[in-house]
Amino acid sequence: MLDRQKDEGGGDIKELMQRYQNLKLGRANAYIEEDDFERIIEHLDEKDEILEAIQAADLALDQYPFSALLMIKKADLLLATRKYKEALKLLNTAALYDHKDMNLFILKTDAYLALDQPEKAIVLLQEALHLFEGAERTELLFELADVYDDHEAFDKVFDCLKLVLEEDPMNEEALYKICFWTDFTGRNEESIRLHQSIIDEQPYNALAWFNLAAAYQGLKLHEKAIDAYQYAIVIDEKFDYAYRNMGDAFLRIRKYREAIEALEKVLELSRPEDVIYEAIGHCYHRMKNYAQARFHYKKAVHLNPDDSRLYQKIAATYMQEGQWAQAIKQLEHAMRIHKHINDYHILLGECYVNLKLYKEAAGYFGTVVKNKPKQIAGWEYLVKCLVANQELEAALAQTEIAYLSTQGKVIFIFYRSAILFMMGKSAEGLLQLEMALSKSSKLINKLIRFYPEIMQDAKVAELITQYKKGKIS
Predict the structure, then answer these.
(1) Contact, 386 vs 416, CB < 8 A?
(2) Count of alpha carbons within 13 Å of 119, Cβ hemisphere only?
(3) Which end of the chain has the smaller Cβ count within 10 Å, N or C?
(4) 178: how many CB neighbours lie within 10 A of its CB?
(5) Could you give the residue ranges of the DSSP H alpha helices within 47-101?
(6) Count of beta carbons in the 10 Å neighbourhood of residue 25
(7) Does domain 1-148 have CATH number 1.10.3720.10?
(8) Domain ranges for the chain
(9) pLDDT score, position 8
(10) Within 13 Å, how many C-alpha atoms sit on residue 233's CB side?
(11) Are residues 32 and 23 in contact, defined by beta-carbon separation less than 8 angstroms?
């Protein structure tokens, strides 16, 4: 085993600390080299003895008053104790002796940011970029990108990362970060050009292919995105995010089988997530394979039982199959989580209508119109429910209330006309129909879907024909 008293430089830290104590006590032969002071300060810092470390730095600077290295060490400790102005003053002094120490610029940046002076930090780092090359310049560009991020100059963040990649195309940190900032800033075309140039030089760079694909996807060029994702996974067959995004791209172009295949690969390569199961369920739903859709939605629910939308999606599969009672159970689950979502009330109402339990259905539709009286949908469902239950007087009354509540939506005059015809009041119905047609003849098809039999009345057919031919509308 390694001797725990040995530091990384191979020296005896215990012996060094003893010499430091001797120096503090003023004993003879207590001289310490500059680099040994650096090790003492770092040792105390690592042990979280910050105040003692500052004291050691002061002793060191007494012996080496022109040491930029020791000044920078002390400034770092002062920043940790929130003495930002004192740290800046010391760093400015250090710059007189060594203005090309990278840590000088990093620590001054930290101080400016702590003092809420990001503009000064930006100017400092921009100047520093001209002094350094290679890895040090890259580090400064990352630092500058972070400052721009804090300053909400997001396009500048993208610019910094682009510069990093132009100088170091294989820089993984920049490749990971620029993908996010491309999406955030919408600079997809630039990202495409940048990554195409990287791929020209480094054709087996999986991250570059991934970023190229993501940029295509940002422009909704899904086929091109899929091609690029496929290159990424050929290079790195365990690239789960490439499979994930490729699945989304296939889904967008309605290639559901291919989307499922890609998303199932994500489940193989990474920890199961509710969003992946939900996406697979959505694909099966679109393919009308309701049993498989339901199976995957339930997997998603198992991972995220507090997402009420998932219960709604399960209910939708049952509704497609006419399993109304099962759909109701799922919607009731959803309602227990979020009872004020109108869509859940509407769907429950639909289920009860199909079970011919009109009173229960009307209760749910009534809640919807109470919650959102200006929205048309709830009123339409309520009126249709009352008509289905042969409650024509009540339906007629609701069309009046709906018309006023929705600030005069013409569809309710059409419905009023149809209900009057159902009640045998054809003269009144015809007057209402003419009024509705004079306001908007575009809703005729909605009227016919609501009450197809109305077209059997010769006067109605004649009136509608006149408006279709261009009578004043």
Answers:
(1) no
(2) 0
(3) N
(4) 29
(5) 50-63, 68-80, 84-97
(6) 8
(7) no
(8) 1-148, 413-473
(9) 45
(10) 20
(11) yes
